[in-house]
Amino acid sequence: MRRIKGEKKRRVQQVRASTEICHGGKILIVPLEGSHWVNMDIMIKALHSRGHSVVVVRTNKSWYIQDNSPHYRTITVPVTEAFNHDFINSIIKKIIDIERGESSLWSFASLQAEMFTAMFNMHRIMCKFATNMFKDKYLMNSLNESKYDLVLTDPAWGTGIMLAHALKLPLVYNVRWITSGEGHMAIAPSPLSYIPLTGSGLSDKMTFIQRVKNLIFSVIWQAQDGFLIHPQYQAVCDQFFGPEVRYSDLLQGADLWLMRVDFVFEFPRPTMPNVIYIGGFQCEPAKPLPEHLEEFVQSSGEHGVIIMSLGTFVSELPADITNVIAAAFAKLPQKVIWRHKGDRPATLGNNTLIVDWMPQNDLLGHPKMKLFVAHGGTNGVQEAMYHGVPVVGLPVFFDQYDNLLRLKERGAATLLTINTVDKDNNFVEAIQEVLNEPSYRMNMQRLSRLHRDQPITPLDNALFWIEFVMRHKGAAHLRTESYKMPWYSYHSVDVVLSFLATVAVITFLPLVFVRYVCLEKCMKRKTNKK
Amino acid sequence: MRRIKGEKKRRVQQVRASTEICHGGKILIVPLEGSHWVNMDIMIKALHSRGHSVVVVRTNKSWYIQDNSPHYRTITVPVTEAFNHDFINSIIKKIIDIERGESSLWSFASLQAEMFTAMFNMHRIMCKFATNMFKDKYLMNSLNESKYDLVLTDPAWGTGIMLAHALKLPLVYNVRWITSGEGHMAIAPSPLSYIPLTGSGLSDKMTFIQRVKNLIFSVIWQAQDGFLIHPQYQAVCDQFFGPEVRYSDLLQGADLWLMRVDFVFEFPRPTMPNVIYIGGFQCEPAKPLPEHLEEFVQSSGEHGVIIMSLGTFVSELPADITNVIAAAFAKLPQKVIWRHKGDRPATLGNNTLIVDWMPQNDLLGHPKMKLFVAHGGTNGVQEAMYHGVPVVGLPVFFDQYDNLLRLKERGAATLLTINTVDKDNNFVEAIQEVLNEPSYRMNMQRLSRLHRDQPITPLDNALFWIEFVMRHKGAAHLRTESYKMPWYSYHSVDVVLSFLATVAVITFLPLVFVRYVCLEKCMKRKTNKK
């Protein structure tokens, strides 16, 4: 089929209509930290460039969210305790020890306990954040008087959700995770037979045993949510809104879910009318590289360039692993750019450039880019997909294995675990396989073509729907309120039980009657005989 | 909030990208008759104007689909029997008699039997259509050699679905109904607790009794599908594809479902990634009226105009009802345009113009339009919504009551049944209520604003996704194949039962063991005592 560029009159009219924009909107944002903030910041800049004024609510202990920005104004709520995000390095060390078999069952239990505690503490601090904010009458009055159009938040933390309720404002999510795993789980029917739970490492095609595993993961997530996390937020709701306001209703009642995936990446699954897919909204065509990087990249000649990054959180790997990685890179004819913060590995080759930070999107979009060694964070994976660069995955924790699995299932990535990197040339062989087997690149470029072939870019889609909520004061018509039904009604348990009871009565009543009549007759006969 | 027109650089770039079109695509269409054809014809004209060549497959007994058109070529498959669509007038007469209480239970049973028979016969003829086509080796070879890009069909009839399988082509639906009710029911989880079944006359908020009714409707639909309709198509599959090919799999396995509703009209519900909403794709801004109609409309002065149409199928109502309707219209200060094919009512007023056909969309979009008296077909309801014209509904059969109910629930319509039209000034009062109570018009205009506020028009969206399927040879990544699982796996019945069995074994095994040990000891003691 021939593809040409053309502009039909009707299309152009349509375009004009879709560029009607809302100016002067006022948006209150309660963001999350880390890579989530990197995302939200892109959205904020886009909203700012469309003429909206953005106010960001953060704590005084924020790690990422800057106080001063040309794109937004901040409101800082004091909390006494900061979340200690150094726990991540301690967790990574434990994970590596466990994966290497150097640890006992006790270490495994202690790792799980540490992760649960960290999560519990994070939500505890978020609840403190909300409590301090709601107690501050002056602040709440001023927020009320500012007449915002909506609250935009990441619902993996609950402060923004409760703030929207307190201010009676429409609520929009920039979301991938909620407290109980993947965002869809809160509102879309999710049959466990083909919807793999977060962290289960399963795909949408499962064996019987895998489906059992999936059910167990579902129980763990729900228990964690029901016993550890929701009660904390519910306590804040009880204190400020009264016990009739359920936190889970507030979470499920958002107007729109701007979901940071799409179905080129995610396995197909049931969804809801108020879920808008914006996966890869942060991706854009590559900009020119800084001069020194461009020079380095060009020096790779026909062999091209590899980049490696383990994301925002992972700053250090154990020296023995980094040495193996560096030695593997040194064997390759490609040039390598490695985002690495620890000590300089002793085995580093001349072909490898170590950097503190790199323009990842611009490098991935460079024509000389051959391969991305990635930890599997959503952002990196989406950028690799957007630019069609195949991946060697080195997942560490959270959703990283699940993310990389989605690429692997489509033949666009290969996966290593941290514990096998240093064994039997595993790492260099994985890289060479992806470099030399053309199907990896072809599959990733197919994903890239599918992902880019949308009627409107994901970022424009996000902006359209945020402004839609402003124009119509919400999007209630897209939201089912079925979550307000009791579970037995939602699942028709009451109807089915009544139906079965009726059938039983209709079946047994004549039997009982017949039996009664027979007995009566028998008795009479006996009496007569006597 | 101020709304202005503006064009940002990035938006324009995006627009250019989204207007990249596929030229020279070859599309094979197996349409449905009646108002479904009216819809499909609009789609065909749009596809033709985008440079695609369209071939329509029809029978020699087609009622609506013309043989000659500048927009498509036809392939005509001979069948010996035509579907007798006059049955509709007979059914309408029976419905009116029943609604008026002039009929016995016997008439009700006979009506149901007649409707089932008509449906059964319709699908029987469609199966004959498919059989004759598949038997014609020459035709099938020629279709195969023509290398179409996809089959576009309306899955309420199954011929196109099986043809796509026979030709191994991607399959796209222009759909609202399937054989077992509303299209979503085939692929999206549809909890009966808040998804009202077609024909049930229920909304998404149901009492316990209504949920029981909904379950009964679900059973009826499924029985009708399972015993009357699917077996006919399955027999064709068995004959030509072998028994391992299940018709229900073919139905569920379409690449895309272009669904002729949106969530301004339909109650919010779970959906799937491969369902694209194109509700109202046939609507467009009003064109100028023919001179005589414009003159008539203008003569209404400040009072404005009312139009009435009972759609494609209903040509005649009983004379006593049309007389009441005409007399009611005669009392109004408005001018009335009435699409009516029967005898001229004796009570017709000077303000009422009877027409055989009218440019409904152009009239609905006229500034003097005040009210639409409609039977509730999807097309008319969507057009009324698009133009923001409130409705007095006179539903007769099929989905009409359900369609009008959706407007009524949003305060944009009022409903009458045919049997109450002629009692106590009901009809004229209903019209006056909608004319005089401003909320009807305001609510409908709110729906209109919501419906029109989309990033891309429904027709452009339909065209984009049809061309997407051409560009990528299908859209498998948007389609879950969970429908291929056995029901007990899909609903995790096997997993849950195994889990319960394991729990039971773990609980009872120690008890059994303890009991065994105790018994052993007791026995020994007894033996010792002896």
UniProtKB/TrEMBL annotation, chains A, B:
<dbReference type="GO" id="GO:0016020">
    <property type="term" value="C:membrane"/>
</dbReference>
<keyword id="KW-1133">Transmembrane helix</keyword>
<dbReference type="InterPro" id="IPR002213">
    <property type="entry name" value="UDP_glucos_trans"/>
</dbReference>
<dbReference type="InterPro" id="IPR050271">
    <property type="entry name" value="UDP-glycosyltransferase"/>
</dbReference>
<comment type="similarity">
    <text>Belongs to the UDP-glycosyltransferase family.</text>
</comment>
<keyword id="KW-0328">Glycosyltransferase</keyword>
<protein>
    <recommendedName>
        <fullName>UDP-glucuronosyltransferase</fullName>
        <ecNumber>2.4.1.17</ecNumber>
    </recommendedName>
</protein>
<keyword id="KW-0472">Membrane</keyword>
<keyword id="KW-0812">Transmembrane</keyword>
<dbReference type="Pfam" id="PF00201">
    <property type="entry name" value="UDPGT"/>
</dbReference>
<feature type="transmembrane region" description="Helical">
    <location>
        <begin position="495"/>
        <end position="518"/>
    </location>
</feature>
<keyword id="KW-0808">Transferase</keyword>
<dbReference type="InterPro" id="IPR035595">
    <property type="entry name" value="UDP_glycos_trans_CS"/>
</dbReference>
<dbReference type="GO" id="GO:0015020">
    <property type="term" value="F:glucuronosyltransferase activity"/>
</dbReference>
